[in-house]
């Protein structure tokens, strides 16, 4: 007897029990009572036991019938669970995901999300690389990169995740001690904190003055290749920094960090999820893209 036929018999028996009688089961299954009785008898003959006492005035399972019912429910439940898992692919995504991200954002948000994603798909091997340097997906063999630059290559997809901006900011203690700059050129009288990327110190800060873009070169007292360290220096009152607002949103909201030169800084920045276009057709990439989009939707609504 084929496995499918055996499963059909189990499903048939369960429907009879759930209906409470052969007559009602016949109505529900749009079959005749003699046909239902004949099929039940065939199942009982195959196992050599009586499953349902049909002589009593009330529908009643025999002792063997009770045992058969318990195991039928268990087997059908396992089959349903296996089928759902296979169709959803959730426990069977395999391979490697290699993800690059800006340092501070990766630590604050992405690391926790990736850990959650890994629990859902335990057969995946996921690598998270953090750096504030500009990345090359091909060179570093990355599947995804979370960055503020839009790649020039036409075979890359760039999904905007957060619309924000870089802002000029310092701690209230710093401003209390040294004053708040009233224009970009007064930064020459202040301690500035700069980020280093790819051996380049970002000491040329952009501003908008009278509708025109302008650059003011600052002389940093402290510089670091880590945006997180620059953040710590700002909190410690070491100076003024040019920071991505989503990295310091919690401190801005609490007043630990204060923005300055807002009227000279209308420039906006986006955080992008970048990946190779042909990657989106594979299930592991598709699942990760959908997962991240949902996480950023929640983040935008709750924080930014």
From TrEMBL:
Q: Which PROSITE patterns match?
A: HTH_LYSR
Entry's InterPro entries? LysR-type_TF_proteobact-type (IPR058163), LysR_HTH_N (IPR000847), LysR_subst-bd (IPR005119), WH-like_DNA-bd_sf (IPR036388), WH_DNA-bd_sf (IPR036390)
GO MF annotations, alphabetized: DNA binding; DNA-binding transcription factor activity
Gene3D superfamilies, from UniProt?
A: 3.40.190.290, Winged helix-like DNA-binding domain superfamily/Winged helix DNA-binding domain
**What keywords are assigned to this protein?**
DNA-binding, Transcription, Transcription regulation
The chain positions of domain HTH lysR-type read 5-62
Q: Which family does it belong to?
A: Belongs to the LysR transcriptional regulatory family.
Q: What is this protein called?
A: LysR family transcriptional regulator
